[in-house]
Amino acid sequence: MTAPGRAAAATRAAVAPRAAVAPRTRGQAPDPALCGPIEAYLDELRTGRRLSPHTLDAYARDLSDYLEFAGHHRLGSWSEATPTFVEAYFVTLARRGLAAGTVGRRRSSVRGLHTYLVRRRATDSDPLAGLVSPRNERPLPHALSIAEIELLLAQPQGEGPLALRDRALLELAYASGLRVSELVGLARGRVDFETRTVTVPGKGNRERTVPFGRTAAAALSAYLERGRRQLEPAPRTEAVFLNARGGPLSRMGFWKVLRGHARAAGIATPVHPHLLRHSFATHLLEGGAELRAIQEMLGHASISTTQVYTRVESARLRAAYAKSHPRA
Fold first, then answer.
1. pTM as predicted
2. 73 in catalytic set
């Protein structure tokens, strides 16, 4: 089966009625007439908007949950979904104790589905048109301090292949701000040492070129010349970063590497892969980089996504003022 075929099969499985798996409720299984439109919507997201498999999985999980709720309430078609029905679904999400971010994403997924159904004339009206979404301000992204970053990057010691890999991995992650998927999916042909840049496809296949510094270049060069060859004596993959068995390093593999070195560095803050990306952006802003430049390096489609880092700076300024000013 081709990759698109596998993706389509996975999508269909994700939106299959949950009553056949392990439903949380004892209601009726969803009407088949509800499943088809969801599959069509997800297919449009995959082929039209070219969303990543990870993002598609999130949409599929969200809409599978909504589908289960519809089956419990015996909806025969999406045209029967009223504003009251949709609002009742959102109330159940809150009662289940889901995180605000998860509830917000579910709202977005359900809104997208009904907008699609109206656009395709599968329903006459959008039940969410009159519903006001709660204003959930995005949480401020946490960043490590520069001192913590220095401690973290100093952890991979020695000249063994895994130590060389870890040093290059962490240095490049912090130097470029790449997403985890972009980092572990980086191919050797996408690294240019002459210009010290990497080229990555990014979200929606929007290709971008990101610079990295001399320290990261030295660590990456040492790994490619001495470490990677030991991990993969016979060329099998173009992936830059390999695991101990010579295969491409996975997202979970990177998380384990990061967690281990953070623990060794004595960093008390919970560390996750995206934290290096947040630290990259925050430290650039602190150093005087323009927001537009940071937006391009991060690969954000909208400047509003990047502007959250200005709120980080504002929060720090307010904290400093409150601590230092005699009339604060």
1. 0.56
2. no
